[in-house]
């Protein structure tokens, strides 16, 4: 009888203490080794970087889609789908004012875009009427092109702004007659099935090596008059603006894009 009682007490104690034992074992730290945090697969795809050209440009990386390499506008159309009428010369192309905006034939979603642009020497005009053009991401969201070297305008409309939304963080503008580069990293907006916004577009812009937009949220389309709004859409082209201002036209060169 006494033995039975003792056995029962031992059993009860064991049942009572077991969870503490398990818990203590669970908390014992695993001894980490270097290999436990190494990732080996899948291997990272190799991209051959662009090479320096005699004209000071750097060619496109091996996985880029070249949108202009100095020869022709075959990657572009006008807004009606006919051939782009902007003028190719000397390895660059120049806005042909009055012929309308031009768009890439291909549509894009998330991407890295490299584009070089120049305001002509001797540009005249003021504010928005001095070298105005623009790069419309997915045909909707304008990154402003303007002569902002010595030209005052509203700051959310100067070069590098998300037009009428976000001013650039800095003014890194090259003087007229010199080339500017934009490197644009863009994440497209996403929409729910009912058409409402799921996540806004975001953009980083590097102007002549200087970050001027840092993962900035785009709040909708970029009209001249009115407030930005989102309307659900899928992939869209890159559009370059033929702005109606009477100043001398901008030129472009070395345009490529990498889909992400
Ligand atoms: Mg513009």
Name its key features.
260 residues, mainly beta, Jelly Rolls, five-stranded antiparallel beta sheet, 15 strands, binds magnesium ion
Description:
- The protein is mainly beta.
- It has two domains: 2-37; 65-259, Exo-inulinase, domain 1 (Jelly Rolls, Sandwich), CATH 2.60.120.560.
- The chain is 10% helix and 28% strand.
- The radius of gyration is 29 Å and the shape is globular.
- The site of magnesium ion has 7 residues, from strand 7 and strand 8.
Bound molecule types = magnesium ion
User: If helices are DSSP runs of H or I spanning 4 or more residues, what is the number of helices?
Assistant: 1
The radius of gyration is 29 Å
Please identify, by name, the CATH architecture of the largest domain.
Sandwich
User: Uncertain runs with pLDDT below 50, 5 residues or more?
Assistant: 9-20
Q: What is the distance, rounded to the nearest whole angstrom, between the alpha carbons of the first and last residues? A: 78 Å
Shape: globular
Instruction: Characterize the biggest β-sheet.
Output: 8 strands, antiparallel
* Class of secondary structure makeup: mainly beta
CATH topology (fold) name of the largest domain: Jelly Rolls
Q: Helix coverage percent of residues?
A: 10-25%
**Mean residue pLDDT:** 93
Give the topology string: H per helix, E per strand. HEEEEEEEEEEEEEEE
- Beta-strand percent range: 25-35%
CATH class wording of the largest domain: Mainly Beta
CATH homology group of the largest domain: Exo-inulinase, domain 1
- How many discrete domains? 2
């Amino acid at each position: 009888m006494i033995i039975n009682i003792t056995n029962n007490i031992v059993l009860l104690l064991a049942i009572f203490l077991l969870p503490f034992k398990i818990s203590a074992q669970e908390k014992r730290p695993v001894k980490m080794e270097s290999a436990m945090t190494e990732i080996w697969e899948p291997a990272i795809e190799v991209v051959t970087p662009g090479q320096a050209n005699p004209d000071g440009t750097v060619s496109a990386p091996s996985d880029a889609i070249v949108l202009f390499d100095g020869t022709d506008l075959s990657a572009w159309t006008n807004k009606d789908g006919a051939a782009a009428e902007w003028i190719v010369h000397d390895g660059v192309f120049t806005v042909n004012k009055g012929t309308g905006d031009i768009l890439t034939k291909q549509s894009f979603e998330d991407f890295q875009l490299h584009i070089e642009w120049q305001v002509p020497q001797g540009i005249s005009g003021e504010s928005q009427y001095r070298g105005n053009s623009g790069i419309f991401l997915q045909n909707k969201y304008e990154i402003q092109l303007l002569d902002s070297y010595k030209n005052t305008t509203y700051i959310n409309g100067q070069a590098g702004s998300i037009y009428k939304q976000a001013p650039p963080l800095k003014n890194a503008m090259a003087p007229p007659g010199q080339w500017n580069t934009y490197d644009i990293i863009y994440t497209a907006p996403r929409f729910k099935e009912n058409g409402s916004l799921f996540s806004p577009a975001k953009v980083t812009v590097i102007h002549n090596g200087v970050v001027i937009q840092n993962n900035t949220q785009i709040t909708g389309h970029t009209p001249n008059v009115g407030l930005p709004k989102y309307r659900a859409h899928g992939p869209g082209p890159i559009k370059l603006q033929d702005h109606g201002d009477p100043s001398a036209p901008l030129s472009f060169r070395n345009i490529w894009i990498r889909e992400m």
